[in-house]
Design goal:
homodimer, DNA Polymerase III, Chain A, domain 2, Proliferating Cell Nuclear Antigen, eight-stranded antiparallel β-sheet
């Protein structure tokens, strides 16, 4: 095996696959990444068994030679070390050559590294995914869906299924739901070419976060194929396989109120900043709770206090405030997360009294819904 | 006490004094900072007893009003909270008002904070420094001196005096020395207006690091006053007081060889990068040791190996290589630190065999000397 490659292209590929490599694995070969060089190009694979990322670097692209293939072959090299070496090499080309006994030579300028590699056939095979149940979403929409939902997954392993996001395909629509039982985030997407049948899978939050990092911010399609135990996301030159979570995802539809008694419209940015400041004092207390109440003249007050440190009051001018007066307390962190997901747009907040969950949407679009369960303090 | 101040100027001042505030102090009032407002402006003070930083914000600067003083007075407020509040306030002006019982009101736009303050007279007084023994160094030279020496102080408390940098004023010259007994950094400075007499003090490395952060990168003078137990650095609008370390600093002059057998001149940058790469493998071993040897044709080889991972060889073309052949092993970290202090310039490295300490200077200037004690492996 021997090839010469443009160093920055190799680095870009390593950046992606390194996201799947765990240093704490119980399977020693998974601390490595697999390199396979053919006439077409270089395939890099990294995996921690839960997530597998594979990226392909074409030998030639738009008439430019990226890789000069001298001898085909494959090897597994220690991931972290290989990545750091390539990052620090002195010139823009790297020659990688494997001799007998998996000895891997990496040369660049006057720098020569010799690493002890491992047999490529010992590396786990990729999961098998039948590609008959597929649909397609643009990459930037996938990134939005992840950003709007994944923060709400549970971080506790007491109900493992809640550490993932439910993706449900039904009647031409994809509905994504995440909840840790104190708050909920839901995103609906109309699919242009929906697959036949219905699917309902729970994707680990971590997998979606890594997916979001490796796909570009473009409108190029991401192809999504679902089987019982795995999901495969195929973007341009990069594949991410993720294990699915087992167990029944709870029915969350009954959590969302069907009627509201107070509706407030205001700047999401102003609300975010007020809560953010109020949270400075709130988080000194164990619970990080802030209070929200409607005053006269469409003014919304956000406040918090800490007996040892002091108090804070913030006033926000809402653009409309209809229905009953409201006094409610909730976690500042959940509210900040929800407002971040709504991306600073003007928001509609709908309450059903101080004891019931309340929801947030943007003014423009109800495809995203954020729900927060209040805390009883009044 | 009541005044209105430009928020970003208050933040700049807080940035400086916060560097002296420790959250782990045993003296509760030192988790606060002292604010004193007079007609002239605002004085902020922060301290952990070892270091005290005081900054002055003028009420008026170049005809612009920075502070509107309504009532003079002083207060101590919780440092971290006050700093975070000011950082997040919504408008560019802040009103600070203290009522009865040290209640401190902070207002900006529609945001109102009420903090519980403490009596300013309970705050420790500044150390008294007689200002008759003084000298002056430009701010950017102070920053250079710190950068070139302070990294070499000991991090171990077994010989506390070695955690500081020796500053010795003698015969119109300032000599600064730091050593952890495995390496040494020395910087000499000719003083333009030396003080009378001789001084020799040991300044904690931490104090010098903080000093370097709060003085600007200008040629404005920093006034330095020394007493038995304290040193005071006075820059424009900011003062730093530091405790001095007690104990006798060892005589380091005998550590520095007086004759050399091998002299190599090469690019400091090329040497840095080669050592940096070799260190990727070296640091997998416990000691982080790299080898350097002179080959034919003025080539210097840097190498390292790790039995489980592999080997690395780097070649550097030196511009001259005079004297005996050299083979020597040393800590990659010490070499990288020394080369960083020499700032990427071309370097002269002088050896006295593989067992004796070796030194580095830049080609242009011998005011900075870096010494490294080798490790016996050959």
């Amino acid at each position: 095996m021997k090839f010469e490659i443009m160093r920055h292209r190799l680095l870009d590929g390593l950046n992606d696959v390194m996201k799947a490599v765990s240093l704490k694995t119980t399977v020693p070969i998974l601390t490595g990444i697999k390199l396979e060089i053919t006439e077409e190009g270089l395939i890099l694979t990294g995996s921690d068994l839960d997530i597998t990322i594979q990226t392909f670097i074409k030998a030639e692209e738009d008439g430019d030679q990226i890789i000069r293939v001298i001898e085909e072959g494959s090897i597994v090299v220690q991931a972290r070390m290989f990545n750091e070496i390539v990052r620090k090499l002195p010139t823009s080309e790297v020659v990688i050559e494997v001799n007998d006994n998996y000895h891997t030579h990496i040369r660049s300028g006057k720098s020569k590294f010799h690493l002890i590699g491992q047999e490529a056939s010992d590396y786990p095979l990729l999961p098998e995914i039948q590609e008959d149940h597929q649909f397609t979403i643009p990459a930037n929409l996938v990134k939005s869906i992840v950003r709007e939902t994944v923060f709400a997954v549970s971080t506790s392993e007491s109900r493992p299924v809640l550490t993932g996001v439910l993706w449900q395909v039904k009647e031409g629509e994809l509905v994504c739901v995440a909840t840790d039982s104190h708050r909920l985030a839901r995103r609906k997407v109309n699919l242009e070419q929906p697959p036949e049948g219905e699917y309902s899978v729970v994707i680990p939050g971590k997998s979606l976060n890594e997916l979001s990092k490796i796909i570009g911010d473009s409108s190029l399609p991401v192809n999504i194929a679902i089987t019982n135990q795995q999901i495969l996301f195929k973007a341009e030159n990069v594949l991410l396989y993720s294990r699915l979570l087992e167990g029944n995802y709870p029915d969350t539809s009954r959590l969302i109120p069907t009627e509201y008694k107070t509706t407030v419209t205001m700047s999401g940015k102003a609300l975010f900043q007020a809560i953010d400041r109020a949270s400075l004092l709130a988080r000194e207390e164990r619970n990080n709770i802030v209070r929200l109440s409607s005053l006269n003249d469409n003014i919304i007050e956000v406040s918090s206090s800490s007996p040892e440190i002091g108090e804070v009051e913030e006033e926000i001018q809402s653009s409309s405030n209809e229905g009953e007066e409201i006094k409610i307390s909730f976690s500042a962190k959940y509210m900040l997360d929800a407002l971040k997901a709504l991306d600073g747009h003007d928001v509609i907040v709908q309450f059903t009294g101080g004891m019931r969950p309340f929801i947030l949407n943007t003014v423009h679009n109800d495809a995203v819904l954020q729900l927060i369960v209040p805390v009883r303090t009044y």
